[in-house]
Design goal:
The chain has a 3-stranded antiparallel sheet with strand order 3-4-5. It has a two-stranded antiparallel ribbon with strand order 1-2. Strand 4 and strand 5 form a beta hairpin. Helix content is 51%, strand content 5%. The protein has 2 domains: 41 residues, no CATH class; 342 residues, Citrate Synthase, domain 1. The protein is globular and about 75 Å long. Helix 8 crosses helix 17 and helix 10 crosses helix 17. With 434 residues, it is mainly alpha-helical. It binds acetyl coenzyme *A.
Length: 434
């Protein structure tokens, strides 16, 4: 094997530069030495949407999109979903290892005892319009938490960070459930410390007049697995927002509000809703061939198919497909599932999809389960945010502890006007002041 370097020849000057390759990557800063003359700023790289730029070194999540592999701290997602619960997964993602029994007891006790929200936050949520989107409520309330926990500004203090992590993982489901109950015109339900993380969330959503809510174990486990599957996905749009805002040393509540806002967009957390609309539009298995024809003609997209990173079956979609059967045993079969399964079968045999490596992604089956469990469509991205909260916090903390990180500040290629004199006539100036 040759040297681990890259030699670049600048044809403008004829000069050659040898740049080190580390982790199969070159450091963009090394390009700055490539100059035409001493006054030159130096060469930059241009990469809109970070298509081929690593913004950080990370040890949290690994994805091999060609092989359809997703690892949390080295463990395959299938094993994590099968053997751990969400709170263990959150601990693993944030701290790097599966908790021991003692560590887990302390972790889950602390999160469980931070699920309450201040009564003034309840009042704040009550102030939203009856039809406010729950994701808008979540984003705003996360930011508002920052005004209640001013100690969160101590981002360099490990103990303070730990406390904010407990609070955020504990309170996100409470806020999400309050947003749901608000939209239904129902009173908010207080957390029940005797229930599991997912079981308590179901309690805060669906408890009516019964003295004690008993979650259905199959639905509780399905929701827990869905949280696990959404827990982290390396440097996606919302994780990057969390890191970027956090890099200015904003507190984690404001940073997470930014991450949740990024997730709100239909290109990120909103695709499962579109899958549901598509399946409803198709309406029956008989209409699938004509729909596929429209997809191939470029008239519509097959929603829930394709992914920027996965060029193979999204491993999360396979797990969701499996748990959907367990959910439907309780809720009754969602007829849209049969359309989805047939649609997948036909698409995966079709040359158009094979050639483009288009496979079902995480959103293809998740909306069908959420619908069967009784969630309104607007809650889908909120459910995504509950699971992702642990990933956002892990990414935020890793960024803060990384000595190579600084405030995020991309460069630009300026193509605007050159410096020029501002000419404003006296008459125009007087007209403005009148
Ligand atoms: N249906 C039909 N054709 C598709 C689809 C689809 N869902 N996805 C991609 N293609 C086609 C494109 O038209 C393109 O064809 P061409 O080469 O003939 O022009 C080719 O496949 C490559 O697609 P790109 O758009 O270049 O792939 P990109 O990586 O930019 O897009 C994306 C990925 C946005 C996810 C895309 O596949 C898509 O729009 N899918 C549907 C929406 C969706 O399910 N989003 C959820 C993603 S998962 C998540 O965010 C949690």
């Amino acid at each position: 094997m040759g040297k681990n370097t890259l030699t670049i020849t600048d044809n403008r000057t004829g000069k050659a530069y040898e740049i080190p390759i580390e982790h199969e990557t070159i450091n963009a800063k090394h390009l700055r030495q490539i100059k035409v003359n001493e006054d030159d700023f130096g060469l930059m790289s241009y990469d809109p949407a970070y298509m081929n730029t690593a913004s950080c070194k990370s040890q949290i999540t690994f994805i091999d999109g060609d092989k359809g592999i997703l690892l949390y701290r080295g463990y395959p997602i299938q094993q994590v979903a099968e053997k751990l619960n969400y709170l263990q997964t959150a601990y693993l993602i944030i701290n790097g290892e599966v908790p021991t029994a003692k560590e887990y007891d302390e972790w889950s006790w602390n999160i469980t005892h931070h699920t309450m929200i201040h009564e003034n936050i309840k009042k704040f949520i009550e102030g939203f319009q009856y039809d406010a989107h729950p994701m808008g409520i979540l984003v705003s309330t996360l930011a508002a938490l920052s005004t209640f926990y001013q100690d969160a500004k101590e981002i360099k203090d490990a103990e303070s960070r730990k406390l904010q992590i407990y609070r955020l993982i504990g309170k996100v489901p409470t806020i999400a459930a309050a947003a749901y109950r608000h939209s239904m015109g129902l009173p908010y339900v207080y957390p029940d410390n005797e229930l599991s993380y997912a079981g308590n969330f179901l309690n805060m959503l669906f408890k009516m007049t019964e003295p004690k809510y008993e979650p259905n174990p199959a639905l509780e486990r399905a929701l827990d697995v869905l949280f696990i599957l959404h827990a982290d996905h390396e440097q996606n749009c919302s994780a990057s927002a969390m890191r970027s805002v956090g890099s200015s040393h904003a507190d984690p509540y404001c940073s997470m509000a930014a991450a949740a806002a990024a997730l709100y967009g239909p290109l990120h957390g909103g695709a499962n809703e579109m899958v549901l609309h598509m399946l409803k539009e198709i309406g029956s298995k008989n209409n699938i061939p004509s729909y596929i024809k429209r997809v191939k003609a470029g008239e519509v997209l097959l929603m829930g198919f394709g992914h920027r990173v996965y060029k193979n079956y999204d491993p999360r979609a396979r797990i969701i497909k499996q748990i959907s059967e367990e959910v439907f045993e309780v809720t009754g079969r969602n007829p849209l599932l049969d359309i989805a399964i047939e649609l997948e079968r036909i698409a995966l045999e079709d040359e158009y999809f094979i050639k483009r490596k288009l496979y079902p992604n995480v959103d293809f089956y998740s909306g069908i389960i959420y619908q069967a469990m009784g969630f309104p469509v607007a809650m889908y991205p909120v459910l995504f945010a509950i699971g992702r909260a642990s990933g956002w916090l892990a990414q935020w903390q890793e960024m803060l502890l990384d000595t190579e990180q600084k405030i995020a500040r991309p460069r630009q290629i300026y193509l605007g006007a050159k410096e020029r004199d501002l000419q404003v006539s006296k008459a125009k100036r007087e007209a403005v002041h009148r």
